[in-house]
Design brief:
β7 and β8 form a beta hairpin. It is built from no helices and eleven strands. The chain is mostly beta strands. The termini are far apart. The strands form two sheets. Strands 2, 4, 5, 6, 9, 10 and 11 form a seven-stranded mixed sheet that branches. A four-stranded antiparallel sheet has the order 1-3-8-7, with no helix packed on it.
Length: 119
Amino acid sequence: VQLQASGGGLVQAGGSLRLSCAASGRTFTGYGLGWFRQAPGKERVLVAATSRSLRRTYYLDSVKGRFTISTNDAQNTLYLEMNSLKPEDTAVYYCVADAMWVSATSPYWGQGTQVTVSS
């Protein structure tokens, strides 16, 4: 099972990016899927997550109203639409998958994609 994250980059504050995470080797329909981020010198933090089987979606308070997590089951792909980006959103973003819900100990992780927001 592999997760391949992409879509990061350098953007000015107020700009937008869309991260993608393509899964291969397994269909993740019904799984818990999410995005963590880790800024330099800080712990990895869950930014957004979703689970169709649990009928649950989660957003970190600081990204509510700006970020949207979504899935394309046909393409086995997870997305994170990020709008109104702020310098404090700068981090490496990791996609993650687990059988029910995601956590720091989930078994499936993408390689990370760098998001840098300039002020």
